Amino acid sequence: MKEKEKSGFLNWIEVVGNKMPHPMALFLYIIIIVLGLSFILGKLGVSAIHPTSGETISVINLISLKGFMLLVPNFVKNFQNFPVLGVVIILGIATGFCDRSGFFTSAIKMGLYGRKGNIAIYVIATIGVLGNQAGDAATASFL
């Protein structure tokens, strides 16, 4: 028998997803675009008016010395003022460690050991519900 060719929307998503560059490359592209736009818009003198305060906000060329001096001193402060970042980094490290050590695989096998196929669906759904009660930590560790 010939294997059916995949078609449809899900196949299109898979094909497009496989053609996407590495996430690190995407971030690098976005950084280059932002730097380029800040250079161009800064040279053009583009500005906007803040809707509530009425203050005029001008585009700062991030490639210039002024832009560099704005970024460097506030670099750590920007990370400190983003509260979710610490949780995401710690959960990423913990999830990677648990995945590489085989903890997740053995925990799933142990949780489903001796269960029939129909029960496995309910066990996984229960893990998802309990994870939802735990908050955002469950989403990161369940992935």
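[next item in queue]
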Amino acid sequence: MSDEFAEHEGLPDEPQAAPEDWQARAMAAEQAMEALRREHAERLRRAELRIEAVRAGMIDLDGLRLIDPAAMTPAEDGTAPDAAALMAQLKRDKPWLFGAPSSSSTASVPRAEPPRARHATELSEAEWRAARAELLRRAGG
């Protein structure tokens, strides 16, 4: 034996994994991965339902429990394409669960514009005197 392996002479060899062992572990890993995929798809569907419920103006999101999970037909990617239709149906069947639609979910963000300084030529004499006095007051302490 060479010198580089001399320090490992007395150690037992690592046990080789039986073919059935790695196959069983691979099957268990695939099953766990499939379970995680199903859980992820379910969470995604529930999140989309909550979003649609807020948009529709649902007062209390506990009303989502009234929707039959079997009524949700998931798409191939796991999304719930019929979430808006389910909310519309629920709103027709149980209108007391809904208030006014939420404007916060559909409000557009105003354009970001930096504050524009007014030039002295745009001010009236009274505005100019007031602005000048304010500037002198801040500069003077």
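[queue empty]
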